Amino acid sequence: MQKQPVEKPAKILLPVSRLVSGRGRILPLVVLLAGLEMAQIAAADTIHAVGVENEYANVISQIGGEYVTVSAIESNPNTDPHTFEASPSVAREIAAAQLVVRNGVGYDGWARKILAADPNSRRQVIVVQYLLHLPESTKNPHLWYKPETMPAVAKAVAASLTQLDPAHASYFAANAQKFDASLKPWYQAMASFKASFGGTPVAVTEPVADYMLQATGCDIKTPWNLQAAIMNGTDPAPQDVSIQNHLFKAHQVKVFLYNQQVTDSLTASFLNNAKAARIPVVGVYETMPTGYTYQSWMLAEVNALRAAVEHDTSTTVLK
Known about the structure:
The chain is α/β, with parallel strands linked by helices. The chain has helices spanning 16-19, 28-45, 54-64, 88-96, 109-117, 128-131, 149-164, 169-182, 184-197, 210-215, 224-232, 238-249, 265-276, 294-311; strands at 47-53, 68-74, 99-102, 124-127, 201-204, 219-220, 255-259, 281-284. The strands form two sheets. It has a four-stranded parallel β-sheet with strand order 2-1-3-4, sandwiched between helices. Strands 6-5-7-8 form a four-stranded parallel β-sheet, with helices on both faces. Helix 5 (109-117) links the parallel strand 3 and strand 4. It is globular, with a radius of gyration of 24 Å.
């Protein structure tokens, strides 16, 4: 879509006698009009970006700062992102964006279709799958749990914003460096857990946090086919369900991590079985919960895992 010119407000000219009070002071109206015009100019100079998933929108915001306005499409942590359907307003929002970041690997294919239907050579599009050189056949699409993902995204966002606004290239680059440094507490927490509790056996419902669990050295005992079936909304094999239930009954896992956003009768039964066996449970999220930045969210997930292993503490909801 071709960028529409921004219409500046018409200047309002008033007689000098109307602008000056009896005491010779400029009336507030002049200041108000000037402020409105400057706000319009600032808005016109601001890059409009869209993060299809709100964790990517959060990173864009941290890199772009005052020079970017960011919208997140999938931002409700109480819904299943796999069942998201784009409305016409969402399509317009994405089509009008100067920068779009989406996940890829089939997670947000609807966004790819919207972008393809309205090509724009000036639009910057970042597909995280391609940044990480991952094939379309990648089994686990929850790429934001990979420790190496967001530094690559931050670098790509800074480069794209520089293409759109070269005058602030050093600002974007500095923010990308700050972002990378801010991930250190998360990396340290994962390394500390791995050093102390590496090899901890865990069970899951879906592969939502699998990348992070692997980085912390956990041993995921749940059969992959069961994880994939629950993720894709298909019927799992009875033998896989039996294996999962046996993990709880025989106390072969120390923590049960479940997708807090997507529950049904099967996952609820797993949750009940884990609680009955006094196995601590941790709720993980696909969508960044309200009140968090990407960094604080990831750190909170690792801290919840450690609390479960070290103190048998369950964290079903991040607060």
